[in-house]
Amino acid sequence: MLPLLKLLQDGRFHSGEALGAALGISRSAIWKQLRHLETELALPIHKVRGRGYRLAGPLCLLDEGVLSSCSASSAWPISILQSVDSTNAEALRRLGTRQEPPFVVLAERQTAGRGRRGRNWVSPFAENLYYSLMLRIDGGMRQVEGLSLVVGLALLNAIRAAGVTGVGLKWPNDLLVNGRKIAGILSELSGDPEDICHVVIGIGVNVNMRAADNIVIDQPWTSMCEGLGGLVDRNELVCELNRQLCRYLEIHQRLGFSALLAEWQEHHVWQGRAVVLTAGSQSITGVVLGVDRTGAIRLEVDGNERSFSGGELSLRLHDDS
Question: What is the CATH number of the domain that holds 51?
């Protein structure tokens, strides 16, 4: 099925005869594989008598050869899966089978992609980036203070390098363009919080997904292709993301989050804004002052400064209906 998809990814018409000749299989076998692409991967196929078959639009498939040639990826083995429940879940399973970190898991599609606080992450086939990096952390959980925020800086620079403008950070793990979400980060810890542990950094980026595709998401969103007006090469994005992650993670490992605090706040789009912080059933209204040396959010609440951190916190603008 993948060889057929590679032939069709240009979005142009290909006759059944030409596809069969290229793959060395019969036209009926081509038809069966086309049906599989439609039913299993939810890829609509346009069929026109006399012209052949084409995808509804061009795709940019992930290419292991291209990705392995990236200099920043040489120390991070990369696995590309056609379909998986979640790249974070797969990375944790591989850790359980004693695959040594660091390593990267990529997927063309997630069937149970997850965001923060258990939210679903919409993951159509070959349109977006579903990426997980597994790292070993020596010295316990204090070594991961501010890590998700540092990853946010790396991701912001990778997206900007592709030409997308107006990208900003929203505490703790989102990237926005003009108030609409373009990317998110989900970090999960495994192991001894006082000694050797592991963290999987899950990254989801809306790359080539379009609003015209009738994608249903429970918050305002955008994608790189909508901002740039054309198809984005996901392989180039992964290579740039790996380069940026290598750079920022090395700084974080040597100097901690405090060395990057000012840079992070420079790109924080809700700096100085009135917000509502939700922690379980409790809601706290305040004004964003920034973040502290550990990556906790600093709010002015009733004239006093307070800091908040934790994976179950949610932040929204005070005037956001």
Answer: 1.10.10.10
> Please, which pLDDT band fits residue 321 given cuts at 50, 70 and 90?
very low
Partners of 55 in the beta sheet? 45
* Count of alpha carbons within 13 angstroms of residue 269, beta-carbon side: 21
Residues 198 and 293 in one domain: no
Cβ atoms of 252 and 152 within 8 Å: the answer is: no
The percent of residues above 90 in pLDDT, for the chain, comes to: 73
Per-residue pLDDT of 147-172, as tens digits, reads 999 999 999 999 999 999 999 999 99
Per residue in 79-92, pLDDT (tens digit) is 999 999 999 999 99
Tell me whether residue 6 is one of the annotated catalytic residues. Answer: no
* CA atoms of 253 and 268, how far apart (whole Å): 22
Question: Which two structure tokens, joined as six digits, stand for 287?
Answer: 């004004």
Statement to judge: residues 157 and 77 lie in one domain = yes
Report the C-alpha gap between 79 and 142 in whole angstroms.
29
For the chain, where are the alpha helices, taking DSSP H only?
A: 2-8, 16-23, 27-41, 64-68, 87-96, 147-161, 224-228, 234-255, 261-266
How far is Cα 226 from Cα 190, in angstroms, rounded to an integer? 36
Query: C-alpha distances in angstroms, 170 versus 25, 124, 313?
Result: 51, 24, 13
Look at residues 13, 34, 55 and tell me which one is the last residue of a structural domain. 55
State whether 98 and 244 are in the same domain: yes
**CATH number, position 295:** 2.30.30.100
Helix (H, G, I), strand (E, B) or coil at 73: helix
Q: Which of 54, 94, 114, 181 is catalytic?
A: 181
In the set 54, 114, 116, 298, the catalytic residue is 116
CA–CA gap between residue 200 and residue 190 (Å, rounded):
8
Question: For this structure, is 316 an active site residue?
Answer: yes
Specify the pTM.
0.91
